[in-house]
Amino acid sequence: MRLRAVEPEDWELFRSFELDSDVQRNGWRVQLPQSAEAAKAWAKERTEETPKAGEEGFTLAIESLDEGVLVGSISTHHVVLPAGRFEYGVALGPEHHRRGYASDAVRLLLAFMFRERRLHKCEASAWSFNAASVAFHLNFGFTEEGRQRDHDYAMGQYHDEVLFGMTAEEFAKLYPVS
Q1: What is the CATH number of domain 2-174?
Q2: Whole-model pTM?
Q3: What is the C-alpha to C-alpha distance for residues 19 and 146, in angstroms, rounded to an integer?
């Protein structure tokens, strides 16, 4: 697995991930279909991103080295430099779940953000009904910090948002530099 820049030709695969009904039902808010032109524009915008310290965030593609295919993406957002915290999100195509790609990608991203950018805390969240995402964060070493009750509406009902956090020190103990 490697993290790389999003390329313009990635748009079709990212769009296919978004159109998958299982992805829509298992943790994503159901969205209106995106046109091919909008998907192309999204990929083009990502290709023009130049991540720099102090900027809001960035998106990287996750690529399988053994198969040589795009399997998903990982991004940072809500970077608050004075507080030293950021949020991240990871998304994989459904056929790439439970193969270790998310764990590897999150470990690389957090190592970069904590060790190279010297940020202090990573925050993440998951809908309470998304048992796989909740379990992922807990197994990875995040601490459940709270919940926002009935925070979001999807699939005909309200759901809690589970909040997670991990500090640079906690990450260093769990994933020491080798």
Answers
A1: 3.40.630.30
A2: 0.83
A3: 31
pLDDT of the residue at 126: 92
Decide if 61 contacts 10 (C-beta within 8 A).
yes
Instruction: Report pLDDT for 33.
Output: 67
Q: What's the one-letter identity of residue 60?
A: L
Please compute, for residue 170, the number of CA atoms within 13 A of its CA located in the half-sphere on the CB side: 14
- The domains of the chain are located at 2-174
